[in-house]
Amino acid sequence: MGISDKALGALIAFYLLNFKSLPGIYNLRVVRYFVRHGLLKEPLTGILEPHKYHSRVWFDDMDLNIHLSNSSYNKMLDYSRIELFCRLFPGWRTRHIFDMRLAQTVCFFKAEVPKFSKYTVTSRIFTWDDKWIWISSRFSIKRKVRPARHAKAIEGAAVPGSSTTATAMSSKSEKGVEEDEEDEDDIDPIDEKAHLSGPSDGAVLVPASPAADDSMADVPERLCCLAYARMVAKDRRGKTITPEALFRRMGHQEAYPGQWEEYRAFGMKMIEGMMKTGSQPADQPTVGKKLANPTRARI
């Protein structure tokens, strides 16, 4: 008995609505990044620069709560990190054969990514040591209303009594822009404080001042998830390539002596607490037998 036209149409519609989960789609999307950046001779993204990956929540990305599912976060992290590496390390799977191996991923969920909404995954290298490279990835969505604290900062940044202030406030009331709560994690601390200003003044941390305008363009996006990944570069023989040796091998250079170390030290402070997770408290007596840690990376 042949299948009816309605049943066939429903089946085709079902697969089209879930096209991102079809067999082979993951591989095709990953290969696309290598093909697109395979002929690069120089990096498109600097070691200290972020890369933004844009996507949208579709039917096969959602869970029973009708928002981006936990499993989809890890899939999108793969896409974002692979494209980041293709831009950072041109030819890393063709001319320069080495692997970027993942040892650990930690996700902190802050808010949902609603159904059918556009979102951005901002990934960057934010610190490293003599072996490991830490990648931060921030899932964020655009705000529709201005955060309350951000609105107050803009109001305080404007000169009291100036025409600019009056125009901005009147424009706000005319448009009926509501105020929303802003979480302190919505702003990337590296973007906010770690603008590396050069050796002339010796300052590494330069707080960013809010712009005195009322457009939504200067409003920070809402952070939905913050993910940290710990990775290591391995050559063909499985030998570790130290991060700074890898950076220089791929054509990256410091803008001034000590720039990378300043950036690295700032990022290392951000993860000190996470690195100490699982360590023995000072007031806890030592155990005679060393306990095995099943979560330790075998790399």
TrEMBL record:
InterPro entries: HotDog_dom_sf, THEM6_lcsJ_thioesterase. Pfam families: 4HBT_2. Residues 156-202, 277-299 are annotated as: Disordered. Transmembrane segments: none annotated. Residues 177-189 have a biased composition (Acidic residues). Residues 162-171 have a biased composition (Low complexity). It comes from the Eukaryota. Belongs to the lcsJ thioesterase family. This is Uncharacterized protein.
